[in-house]
Structures are given as C-alpha cells and as structure tokens.
Amino acid sequence: MSTPAPVHSRATSARNGLRGVLLGLIGLAGATTAAVAGPSFDCNSPRTRSERLICASQDLSDLDRRISNAYRNASGALDAPGKSALRVDQHLFLESRDIQAQTDDYDMKADFEWRAKLLENIQPDARSGFTGLWANAYGEIRITPVRGGVFEVDIATVQPYPSFPVCQLKTSGSPQGTILVVGNATAAERDANDGWTVRLIRNGTALTAELQRPPSSGMSSPPFCGFRTSIDGDYLPVHRMPADPRFKAE
To answer: In this protein, which residues make up the domain named Lysozyme inhibitor LprI-like N-terminal (predicted)?
Structure first.
C-alpha cells in the first residue's frame, strides 16, 4: 500500500488547484466582457431606431464605440475653431444616421466605417495654407497648387437623404490672404457655373466653404449641385479618405 501524501502537500495542491480554477473563471469573465462590449450609449434605453439597430449588432456596437473614441481624441487635439466645426459635424452625422436608419436600404456599417476613418484621419495641427484634403460629414474639398499661385479645387458633397443629390465642382482660383474664391477664374468657368462661385476661408484648423449666389440666379440652384444639397459648411483637414459610400456609381 502506498504511503499517503503529507497533509500539507495535499492542502498545497488543493490551494493551487483552486487558484487555477479562479484564474480560469476570471479569464473567462474578462473574455466574455470583451466579447459583448456595448456601444457608446446605454442599450437599456435606446432612444431611436438607429440605436436599437446598433444594440442588436456587435459589429455596429464596435463601430459606434470606435467613432466615439475617435471623436473624443480629435476634439481633444483641435483648436477652438476646429472643435466647433467638429461638434457641428458630429451633430450632422448623427442626424443623417437617424434619418437614414428609417429606410430599409441604409448600409449603416459602411457609413460607420467611413465616419470612423474620417475622424481617425483628422490632422489636428493647423495647416499654413489651403493645400490638402478637407472633409466633413457631407463630403470633401481637395485643393492642389498648380502654378503661379493658382490652385485647382475639386469639391464633392452629397446630401445623405433622401435621394443622395450631389454637388460636384472642378474649378480653380488664386487666394487673397486667407480667402480663396473659385469658380470664376476664366470666362469659360463663369459661363459653365452660371456666375456661381465658392468662397473658401481659412479659420484656424478649419476651412469654411460658402456658396456665392449671383444676383441673376433668382431661386435656382447652381448648375453643379443637385436639388436641396449644398457645399456650405466647415471642413476639417484629413490625411486621406476612402471613397464615400454614399456617392452612387453611375
């Protein structure tokens, strides 16, 4: 008959076994918590259909949390004009999200992925001029120097509902200090744009765009914009952006 193990040895083994079980349970609880991490808001009381959709999807919950974190990081790094522009832009994004979520064909995941990348690619350090890519919830403005102080400007915005009307303008202009007016650099541009121009203004980190209506336009829209869409608003400097999923392929 074998000799029984000493009492202290059996107690030590029991303690080690219990410790292993507890560590395993703690690890399992941590993994479970990570796996079911919710969005940036309380799913016990969702306020809108879009929030209910987010709460029902782990992918959307993860993206919502990613957007919230990216927004907080960008806001903390921007100057006062940039913070103000970002705050308004986030409100517009959430508003359009809630409106689109009422439809059956809204690709919320693609929209959220695009929004997260926009926020993560914001450059908080103020640029010294106009050159670069500027973006907001409704689109982007790409400004490239070409020659002799002239800039080539490519503007593309989209109203995210109900029929995705767009503004698309490829034009040029020369800055006067912190202001760059485009759309009327040549007679051909003035004719093509029916006298409409876009005024671009540097304001701290942000770039403000203002559509300038010609006196003879009456109540008409610019020829480069669809019905009920616009270029007006503040844009933030970004490194790069993927294609906007709201622009429909022709």
So the answer is: 44-106
| Nearest to 207, CA basis, from 235, 167, 227, 242 | 235
Q: Are residues 149 and 67 in the same domain?
A: no
- At 224, the amino acid letter reads F
The answer on 102 and 58 residing in a single domain is yes
Most confident of 159-173, 195-209, 211-225: 195-209
The whole domain housing 61 covers 49-120
pTM: 0.82
**pLDDT on residue 218:** 76
Query: Which of 96, 120, 144 is the C-terminal boundary of a domain?
Result: 120
4, 10, 87, 114, 194 from 242: Cα distances, Å: 70, 63, 22, 7, 31
Over residues 75-96, the pLDDT tens digits come to: 999 999 999 999 999 999 999 9
Task: Indicate the pLDDT class of residue 219, thresholds 50, 70 and 90.
Answer: confident
- pLDDT per residue as tens digits for the range 27-36: 444 443 344 6
Please tell me the total count of domains within the chain: 2
